[in-house]
UniProtKB/TrEMBL annotation:
GO terms for molecular function: branched-chain 2-oxo acid dehydrogenase activity. Coiled coil: none annotated. GO terms for biological process: branched-chain amino acid catabolic process; response to nutrient. Its EC number is 1.2.4.4. It is an enzyme of class 1 (oxidoreductase). It is found in: Mitochondrion matrix. Keywords: Mitochondrion, Oxidoreductase, Transit peptide. The keyword Nucleus does not apply. InterPro entries: THDP-binding (IPR029061), Transketo_C/PFOR_II (IPR009014), Transketolase-like_Pyr-bd (IPR005475), Transketolase_C (IPR033248). This is 3-methyl-2-oxobutanoate dehydrogenase (2-methylpropanoyl-transferring). PANTHER family: 2-OXOISOVALERATE DEHYDROGENASE SUBUNIT BETA, MITOCHONDRIAL, 2-OXOISOVALERATE DEHYDROGENASE SUBUNIT BETA-RELATED. Heterotetramer of alpha and beta chains. It comes from the Eukaryota.
Length: 359
């Protein structure tokens, strides 16, 4: 592996990556113009990877079955176009995939590592938590692996059961030195993934596999990036703030629409980046509405919703008119037959919205 790294890195000049995004191409940090080609989330991911590989010869994409297109076909056509020296399969060894990516990024390359399912990211946990996240810190910024992006499909898929449906984002939100990003739609996925790949810090990018084929919208074909750590107010309201990320946003939008029919005005916020998350946007909204509801697929205990709740209570205690509500997954392994009972549904969220407003 060491000799392979030397061959791959020999042609690339060593990069000095800063700890902030300011060194990234600022001109690309803008919301895309209206219009574009109708694409699903899978195609949007594929477009982003095409652009990343084409725009930077130091970019490499690798993982289990990646050169064949991957389980979800997100990498289809990439090996044919950019060659199997830049898009290649790896052994079934997540620890090795991430470890290889750390070394590749440390030599000045852009390493895009794919974990086939987020449920199988745990064998690589040591490499992510003890190596990638601390690489810059341990050297006093003399060297880093900031060019590493780890992609992983996460969350419910309708039939995955306890080994193919987990939402492990909260584990990584406890780790200083990495960023955690989750898109909600095709347009967001393309812009955020390109930002992650070009960010000067290691990033874990979770893709909501439930939306790979179901979420469709117009996606600009050009190269664009969306800023990290900036939450987006999708729907403005005055009675309650509703916060989520990823696939859960579509469920929350339905609940907010249902609440509107009953005279309740909901302000819906997509966090997008969990670490570091945009506290200011959420705080400003809660100061206006006086109420907060958080929803995510992961189990409620220790989920990232708990961190949001604690932070907002500290910042907005005197403005809150009701306890913070959390509508999340259950504290059980992800079930197969009983998935409908496990998931935070539209009706569960709508009931919680009404209960919080009427508290």
């Amino acid at each position: 592996m060491a000799s392979a790294l030397r061959r791959l890195g020999s042609a690339a000049a060593r990069r000095g990556l800063s700890t902030a995004c300011e060194d990234t191409k600022k001109s690309l940090f803008q919301l895309p113009q209206a219009g574009g080609k109708s694409s699903n989330l899978c195609s949007a991911i594929n477009q982003a990877l095409h652009i990343a590989l084409e725009s930077d010869p130091r970019s490499y994409l690798f993982g289990e079955d990646v050169s064949f297109g991957g389980v979800f076909r997100c990498t289809t056509g990439l090996a044919d176009r950019y060659g199997k020296s830049r898009v290649f399969n790896t052994p079934l060894c997540e620890q090795g995939i991430v470890g290889f990516g750390i070394g590749l990024a440390a030599m000045g390359n852009r390493a895009i590592a794919e974990i086939q399912f987020a449920d199988y990211i745990f064998p690589a946990f040591d490499q992510i938590v003890n190596e990638a996240s601390k690489f810059r810190y341990r050297s006093g910024n003399q060297f880093n692996c900031g060019g590493l992006t780890i992609r992983a499909p996460y969350g419910a898929v309708g039939h995955g059961g306890h080994y193919h449906s987990q939402s492990p984002e909260a584990f990584f939100c406890h780790v200083p030195g990495i960023k955690v990003v989750i898109p909600r739609s095709p347009r967001q996925a393309k812009g955020l993934l390109l930002s992650c790949i070009r960010d000067p810090n290691p990033v874990v990018f979770f893709e909501p596999k439930w939306l790979y084929r179901q979420a469709i919208e117009e996606v600009p074909e050009e190269d664009y990036m969306l800023p990290l750590s900036e939450a987006e107010v999708i729907r403005e309201g005055s009675d309650i703030t509703v916060v989520g990320w990823g696939a859960q946003l579509s469920i929350m939008e339905q609940a907010c629409a249902g609440a509107e029919k009953e005279g309740i005005s909901c302000e819906l916020i997509d966090l997008k980046t969990l670490i570091p998350w945009d506290k200011e946007t959420v705080e400003a909204s809660v100061r206006k509405t006086g109420r907060l509801l958080i929803s995510h697929e992961a189990p409620v205990t220790g989920g990232f919703g708990a961190e949001i709740s604690a932070s907002i209570v500290e910042r907005c205690f005197l403005r809150l008119e009701a306890p913070v509500a959390r509508i999340c997954g259950l504290d059980t392994p992800f079930p197969l037959v009983f998935e409908p009972f496990y998931m935070p549904t539209k009706n569960k969220i709508l009931d919680a919205i009404k209960a919080t407003v009427n508290y």
